[in-house]
Amino acid sequence: MPTSRRNFLKTSVLASSLLFVPKFLHALDRQGLTRMRDSNGRRLVVVQLGGGNDGLNTIIPYRNDLYYNARPTLGIKPQSGILMLEKDLGFNPSMTRLKALYDEGHVAVLNSVGYPNPDRSHFRSMDIWQSGSASDQYVTTGWLGRYLDSNCPGCELPYNGLEVDDTLSLAMKGNVRKGLALKNPEKFHQITQNQLIAKISGEKANTGGSELDYLYKTLTETASSAEYLYQTSKVYKSGVSYPNTEFAKSLKTTAELINSGIESRVFYVSLSGFDTHVRQQEQQAKLLGNLSDSLGAFAEDLQKSGEFENTLVLVFSEFGRRVSQNASNGTDHGTANNVLLLGGGLRQKGVLNDAPDLQNLDQGDLNYQVDFRSVYATVLRDWLRADDTVILGQEFARLRGLV
């Protein structure tokens, strides 16, 4: 293989989609299955809030004196415009679009979601959430990647799971199948039209090396996926007004792909910047406003096309923040956090469990009420019709009747 090709493949953004798999796994590609197993037409959109969003200032316990005692300047007062929910909780004042969807019965709130022996490292905790593992396990595949393995064993093209970003997260990497990372179908298509890529994808490896054979095969599949996504995405162009932010653009791209009829069943988007150690209030309010307004536009887009009933949005962050504010009017790394679920097909809506218990803390941090893998198990089995025990490696109690 010429050096120029080798260097190109190492540095190209396409490298995030290449699968280096031993030859014995090629048998999976010969099974003749090219579509996902039946999920009843349902789709999952995962929204990752990177940096550790402060859950207590997102879903605010505005009647709890312990909250205000722990946050004398950072605690958000009711007169600041808290958007009242139920169980003495309220949305951050910047989350007006999400509050409107909540009032329409399209939002569910889970409090104190976490896992035993929590890790306060951004990287490690994010790995735990993305892999669906225990805190003492080190896993190299993600829960959504293993879903692709389980429900799409013969899918030859990687577009069944899409991450609207430049790189592919651990969450989307399976043992055999991976999702595909792209920011924009048109730009992604343009990359694959590069003459060198076109030449390589049109060639056939004759070295007999299993990894090289698979590299050529996967590059061809990536080019085919790019062509499919580009042509299909032309079917629908959104007329909904989205915020002028990168996160909103990612959701708009996701909505256009869904509304164009693309066969993908899982999507992954991210909003970063939540590591609010210093002067949190303004920074977080801006981020939560972006989250709320962007999800509001996304929901409107899907409602107009009739796809909102078939779409579930899961919003999470790798951990919450400590209960007490720090000396810099911010919060430090914590543990359990809230999870939001959004969609037209929710069977349970509103605040689903008790507010965080601020009286019984673990060294200043929240104790978790709900294991995040119970949320995953619920989404996998009850929404996507997948085998959650195979994908997660064991059985977790599901949240019955949620979706």
Give the DSSP E fraction (strand runs of 2 or more residues). 5-15%
What is the share of helical residues?
25-40%
| Poorly predicted sequence stretches spanning 5 or more consecutive residues | 1-34
Number of strands: 12
What best-fitting shape do the alpha-carbon axes yield? globular
Mean pLDDT: 88
Which structural class is indicated by helix and strand composition? alpha/beta
> Kindly, what is the distance between the CA atoms of the first and last residues, rounded to a whole number of angstroms?
50 Å
What keywords describe this structure?
single chain, 403 residues, alpha/beta, 9-stranded mixed beta sheet, 3-stranded antiparallel beta sheet, 12 helices, globular
Walk me through this protein's architecture:
The protein has 403 residues and is α/β, with parallel strands linked by helices. Helices cover 34% and strands 13% of the residues. The protein is built from twelve helices and twelve strands. Strands 1, 5, 6, 7, 8, 9, 10, 11 and 12 form a nine-stranded mixed sheet that branches. Strands 2-4-3 form a three-stranded antiparallel sheet. Helix 9 runs parallel beside helix 10. The radius of gyration is 22 Å and the shape is globular. Residues 1-34 have low confidence and may be disordered.
Short description:
With 403 residues, the chain is α/β, with parallel strands linked by helices.
How would you summarize the topology of this molecule?
Layout: H1 3-11, E1 43-50, E2 59-60, H2 65-70, E3 83-84, E4 90-91, H3 96-103, E5 107-114, H4 122-131, H5 143-151, E6 161-163, E7 180-181, H6 185-192, H7 195-202, H8 210-233, H9 246-259, E8 266-272, H10 280-305, E9 311-317, E10 337-343, E11 350-351, E12 370-371, H11 372-383, H12 388-392
Parallel strand pairs: 1-8, 1-9, 5-11, 5-12, 6-7, 6-8
Antiparallel strand pairs: 2-4, 3-4, 5-10, 9-10
